[in-house]
Amino acid sequence: MKKITKAVIAAAGYGTRFLPATKNQPKEMLPIIDKPIIHYLVEEAVKSGIKDIVLVTRSGQNSLEDYFDSHRELEYELEKSKKTKRLAEIRKIPKMANFIYVRQKSDLPYGNATPLLSAAPVIDPEESFVYMYGDDLTVSKTPVVKQIIEIYKKYEPKTVMAVQEVPRKEVHKYGVVRYKKRAEYKYEIDEACEKFPAEKAPSRMASFGRFVFSYDVIRKAKETPTGKDNELWVIDILNSLAREGEKIIAQPIEGEWCTTGDPLSYLKTSFNFALKRDDIRGDLKKYLKSIL
Known about the structure:
- By secondary structure, the protein is an alpha/beta fold.
- 33% of the residues lie in helices and 23% in strands.
- The chain has one domain: Alpha-Beta Complex (Spore Coat Polysaccharide Biosynthesis Protein SpsA, Chain A).
- The protein has helices at 37-47, 62-67, 72-80, 84-92, 114-119, 144-155, 215-223, 234-243, 263-274, 281-291; strands spanning 6-10, 31-32, 35-36, 52-57, 98-103, 129-133, 136-139, 159-165, 175-179, 189-194, 205-213, 248-252, 256-259.
């Protein structure tokens, strides 16, 4: 098996559920403390051995592309003012990985699988790759991307998706999986169900935005019709492969999945990351105690 060195990040959504949906405010650029969400995703991928980052964006999302570019004027000002630490941080950003930018065309259907169609021309047909949603963050000792790459290399399925158990009352928000009763590996699935009512859901193991795909997933995406709400869903593609007898693994991960799609989740994620920072954890705890 070839080494997995490429990650596709689906960053083609508009706005957020709590900010105006505009082309110039991609949700992936919202800050978590002092870095935008997209920076954390790239860091996770790079720490997992990824060299090439494919960012799938839409027209007008120049801020995403600009962020990972060099900024000569800013560097000059920082150098002139002798802000050497900040200068070093700015210079490291474009060197994090090799960045490839792909625009998602407006004639393609909406959906969390649509960026696969846009990224297809830059993925080798013999290549497996990581796929990441642009607004899901993770906190773990071992990067989640690295965890699922290791499972993929060990069992060689068509897909490994990261899953985590969610409270029963939240099951309807996510895609949850039904595991096979008899399988070579205990986390192989029969199917996944998108946003089912809790009483009908086959489990509480919810899929989130971390996958390792073989190129067969792209092939299947090209022939999969839109589904619920006329969107192209990753789950529909994986269910098609599972029905054909292909191995699809839903791997529980070590760590924590953090969402950012609504005000409360965004604040929880910000505090979660802040409380893991040695430089601000102590003062933040004191402040929170003072106001509670």
